[in-house]
Amino acid sequence: MPPTPKRDLLPGMLDMLILKTLSIQSMHGYGLAQHLLRLSQDVIRVEEGSLYPALQRMRQKGWIRAEWRQTPNNQRARYYTITASGRRQLGEQEDRFEELMAAVRRVMRPA
Amino acid sequence: MREWLARTIDWFRRDALDRELAEELRFHRQHLERDAAGEAAGADEARYAARRRLGNATRIAEDARERWSIPVLDRLQQDVRYALRGLRRSPGFTATVVITLALGIGANAVMFNVVDHLMFRPHPYLRDPGSVHRVYLQTAGWNRDNVYATFPYTRYLDLQRWTTSFSQLATFAPATHGVGTGDAARERSIVGVSASFFDFFDARPVLGRFFGAAEDSIPVGANVAVLGFSFWNADLGGRNVLGESIQVGNVPYTVIGVAPENFIGVAEDDHPAVFVPITAYAANEGGGSRSDYFLRYSWDWTQLMVRRKPGVSHAAATADLGAAFLRSWNASRAVHPLYRTAELALPRAIAGPLKTAAGPNPGLEARTLLWVAGVAVIVLLIACANVANLFLARALRRRREVALRIALGVSRGRLAAQAFTESVVLALLGCIAGLAVAQWGGLAMRRLFIANATAFDVLTDWRTLGAAMAAALAAAIVTGLAPVFFTGREDINATLKAGAREGTYKRSRTRTVLLVAQAALSVVLLVGAGLFVRSLGNVRDLRLGYDVDPVLLVRWERRGTPMDSTDRATLRRRLLETALARPDVERGAWVNSAPFAAGTSIMTLAVPGIDSVPLLGRFTYQVVSADYFATIGTRILRGRSFGEHDRAGVPRVAVVSEAMAATLWPGREAVGQCMRISWQATGADTMPCTTVIGVAENAVHAPVADLPLRYYLPEEQWDFGATWLLLRMRRDPAGAAEDVRRALQAAMPGQSHVKVQPARELVDAKRRSWLVGATMFVGFGILALLVAAVGLYGVIAYGVAQRMHELGVRVALGAQAGHVVRLVVIQGTRFALAGVALGVTLALLAAPWIQPLLFDQSARDPAVYGVVASLLVVVALLASAVPAMRAARADPTTALRSD
Questions:
Q1: How many helices (H) and strands (E) does chain A have?
Q2: Would you give the DSSP letter of residue B359?
């Protein structure tokens, strides 16, 4: 199996990606990791060592809720759901991210 | 903020969170394995690949777990566990400390609750209590020059008209009347209130409405009633009573509303059962004043509360009231020309606290309560001193352990934190036990203080719980930090080397000071107890001018049964005959106003040879039937009592009190003198002579009251509608009360009813403050003595244990058992003597303050001091005798060989 190229996420970006994903649908941790991997075409490989602490932190901040549910294959898994305050947070982070990207683009490709 | 709350909650369920995380990671790994299985060949390889991708599971768990670990809480939990383990290991120590603190905290919780209710806690529903005041008045020559809060309705009208500082004024008049009909009628507290009264509160009726200004109109208000919640709930079953009629006193009222739960208006102890318009109350119950209560100033019955307008200062409000009262005083002189001039009466008005106990002239009972509250604080101090002493003793015993732990690297800060945690745990245990004590003791207290005890519940009262917790924390700080400060830094090396055997016996100065302080405070409390007990005895023994024990009081309410004065006289005669027909009734007599009370009824008096009788004092009267003096036991000192021949139509006669005789005719014989009496405000000097036929001994209504300027008139000559029947019983009145009530009730017509009560009950209520003072002081004094004795015993016993080695050496060298005992006992007695000396000094210094609370008893009574001092010394002897005996049995070989 070829080694996956490693891409470092900017700080805070993981939170935004998780919130964005959860804003579409509730998921368990494994599902989240797979979803990010698939959508980013294997570029964003979230280390589980950062995924689960991040989920706990966001739960304590009240951005997401956790509850145990049955998976379609009838297994017990912890599903995470975004809360109203999480959606607000996501909006702010998206705005900040857009601003940052625009700024970076202006620097990299001056008109 | 929210995050920290979540973290704290997570901390409490961190074990569950750990388990959940483990399951989550297991789930994750299973799926990775499954994915890998699709790519790789062997199962082993798949598992390996999955594990590689997941990374170090333990590490992940650790990282996530950090989210629900709070180091401070972790350490605290450790300390608490350590403390609990230590306390379980020494149950004797724990029990002593917990019980000692429980008594101290419990006593304070009870007293806080009582004093808080009495003085500080705002009335339920009262809006913005800070701007609400009660109006107090003061005039020279009235109420012994003290302020008073009860005055005529007319005064309220004047003050309302002539003040500008207040956004709201309301007048109210609490009273007790029979409520209900027939056999179900009970004496209840009711309040006549102005319609504006309800506007002071943010209260909404649970049923119906409150009454408005139209129903509270001069001269006769509407007969409508608002019920108190607890009365409605308990007596009427909480049913819809709107529109029903309820009998209150003489008249039926229509129920228009029910006040919300806990609404008591501004009542001071009781939950009022019924609120009625004050103008309706005056017209129905006002007796001779019912038609002119709003014009004249002779009926003192209403109280007044006001709300300052925003921006009006307290001082400005008082000044405004003062000016209005001066105007009102002059207005009252226009109606009552005999009132003193403003220059003499010096009318003064104060906007004071709503609660009279916090007001400018709190009653004896309120002042006594404050003292008792102070006493409770002293008991807590003694308890703290005692516990601190026990802690110190233990700290000394643990010296080696502590030195060892320091040597092993535990920081001193952590040690102090542990010691403190331990004392907090103990204080909290003491607090819980103390609240149990308070709950139980509080019920007893309320019964003692407030006859109509309302619900008293420490456990559901947040203010009291808070106060108890504060007391517990204070105790924890005092007791927990004492050892930390006082043991100081020790030389670890020396301690470790010394071993269990103490080289020499070291006396701790701190412990000595604590012990002496305890003894001193106990002496102060016991002296207080002794003084109150003797006061109570003096009050009991006082000759009041009447007999209380054999007398039964019968009160009669006509309840609207129509009767003219002839009917009433017939009924009175019939009731008296019914009573006298019973073998257990010796004598009986009617009287028109409450016996054993300060008289309030006055008529205009003129006496030949005296310019202005009112300037000599306030002469009150009672209208009595012939056998009155023999029934109540007031002796006739000179002349004669009333007889059959003092009837209507013959020249009027009167009996005067000794004090009145001495005031009006000093140095002369009162019998045969002439008084002219008029029911009107003026014209007494043209009335025919009422001849004084006898002088009766002074009948004082309360032990501290002025001597009564009282005259008695025969019922046959003055038809004033006597409503009190006094019966002198041949057997115990309390036992006979119910029989008598049934016999008399049978003779009553219609809705009217009688109430029967032993006279002792009425009089005991007046002695309550001494009773309370004596009981509480004695209770707390004994408590303090016990606690101090335990402390003394503990310290001496500990000292003996420390000296076992030394004592063993002494015995080995030939000391007799007697020598050893004497050595120990002398040491204990020295502590006690020092405490006695200090305590006596403190008590003597406090004497001037406690003097006003005592009755006919010097606050420096040497007998009391002597008894207390010897009591303390005896207790000290006993407390040191037990360890001394143990010391005497010291076996020299064991003592010398140990360690």
A1: 4, 3
A2: S
Q: Are B179 and B186 in contact (CB under 8 A)?
A: yes
B445 vs B236, residue with greater confidence:
B236
- According to DSSP, the β-strands at B348-352 and B132-138 are antiparallel
Radius of gyration over every alpha carbon of chain B, rounded to an integer in angstroms? 37
Residues of B with CB under 8 A from a CB of A: 2-3, 6-7, 10, 20-21, 23-25, 27-28, 31-32, 39-40, 49, 53-56, 59-60, 63-64, 66-68
Pairing, β B186-193 against β B274-277: parallel
Residue B260 preceded by cis peptide, ω within 30: no
CB B60 within 8 A of CB B25: yes
Nearest CB to A30; choose among B21, B27, B55: B27
Q: What is the ipTM for the molecules in this complex?
A: 0.83
SS3 of chain B: helix, strand, coil, percent, to 5? 55, 15, 30
Please say whether the beta carbons of A38 and A27 come within 8 A: no
Helix, strand, coil share (%) of chain A residues, nearest 5:
55, 15, 30
Eight-state DSSP code of residue B559: T
Angstrom distance (rounded) from CA B880 to CA B75? 42
The amino acid sitting at B380 is: L
3-state secondary structure of B144: helix
Pair type for strands A27-28 and A76-82? antiparallel
Dist CA B83 CA B87 (whole Å): 6
3-state secondary structure (DSSP) of residue B87:
helix
The beta-strand segments (E) located in B336-443 are: 348-352
Q: Which two tokens stand for residue B500?
A: 């269990």
Side chain identity at residue B276, one-letter code: V
What is the SS3 assignment for B553? strand
Q: Kindly determine whether residue B32 and residue A52, on different chains, have CB atoms separated by under 8 Å.
A: no
User: In the structure, what pLDDT confidence band is assigned to residue B193 with cuts at 50, 70 and 90?
Assistant: very high
Q: Over range B799-806, report the average pLDDT.
A: 73
Q: How many CB atoms lie within 10 A of CB B817?
A: 14
**Is residue B587 within a helix (H) or strand (E), and if so which, with residue range?**
strand B585-591
Q: B370: which 2 tokens?
A: 């404050």
How many residues make up chain A in this entry? Answer: 111
User: Residue written as tokens 């009175």?
Assistant: B572
Q: Please give the C-alpha separations between residue B401 and each of B393, B398, B803, B898, in angstroms, as whole numbers.
A: 14, 5, 20, 19
Option in B39, B59, B67 nearest A1 (CB): B39
Using an 8 Å CB-CB cutoff, list chain A residues near B32.
Answer: 30
DSSP H helical ranges for B13-68: 14-39, 43-54, 57-65
User: Whole-model pTM?
Assistant: 0.66
